[in-house]
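Pasting as-is:
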Amino acid sequence: MKKVNYLNNKDLLSEIHKSKVSYCTFPTDNHSQYDLIVPFIEKINVRTIAQAKRNKAKRLCQQEYEKQKKINPKIRYSDCEINYKKILKDDLVFRVMTYNHIPEEPGRRRNPRTIADTKVKVNFPPFQHWKYNETGNLVCVGKSHWEGGLHNGKFNKESGKVTTRLAQMWMKLCERYSTRGNVRGYTYNDEMQGQAILQLAQIGLQFDESKSNNPFAYYTAAVTNSFVRIINIEKRNQNIRDDILEMNNMMPSSTRQAQTSNTAPGTPPPPTPTKKPVKKKKR
């Protein structure tokens, strides 16, 4: 396994896809790669089919370009372009976001607001993969959180796992964030990193590719919130310790002493800056 030296959205999306696929069931590996995400099956129409063909042509072109570039470094990207109109409708795979195959769990939420509140809690939004068969009808070719056959299998939300490379990316992101100037000076920096890694392990696969293609921003926001949470907890604990020390006539922390000296009674307020008079121009 290669060591993660840098992070980009392309590699993150690839590892997120591999991790989610490990929780799914597909008759063949070709059905695991989707060409377009739709919110429900009725959205599969002429317009979305054309968009799926463009996406598939772009992906195949990129794969062929990377393959040929290893052989001939001077090859151009335009030499590997594929006309999307030549792609058949039967070769397309659509990812449909649905909870139809997730079992019910009544009482999980007292006041359910969405369909997700009435279903078993899963680690990422469930989906199904659909494609056209030889007769032109849509058939299901894959289910998330599923084990066994598509028709005789069963629901299983713990059948997969996160890839090792994606876990390394999470650790690298937390490590790099901990070196920022506004957080690297704290003595509990390691605790902040641990909390951030734990948070990413819990919500890392909840990233929805249908709403955004920028998982780096999604993960950075989660890491920032984890760091801020630990800072606030440590500050609150420090204030409690200082209050107890002051109640027992003991010396509080240097931070409390600095705050007390700045707000000591009898200290004159800082001078307010005075505005210079504006000279009027003579006409």
